[in-house]
Amino acid sequence: MPRRKQQITTPCTPRLVPGVDCDFTVKEWCAKRRISEARFWIMHRNGDGPAVIQVGKHGRITITAEADKAWAARMTVKA
Description:
Layout: E1 23-25, H1 26-33, H2 37-46, E2 53-54, E3 61-64, H3 65-75
Antiparallel strand pairs: 1-3, 2-3
């Protein structure tokens, strides 16, 4: 029997106020940008990844929608 694809839910839930940007976990951001988590950590270590927010020493790491947009603008190749 073939394996089902895991569905990634969007980080915004209906409870949130419309128009307010949401944060992505590393896993959600990688799924959105179609890169592996290993590649994310390599980019992060080299300073090429998006800006992240971490609350506390071992807290959850998130990426804001603004950081995603800024990263996309930096990575866009102009012809």
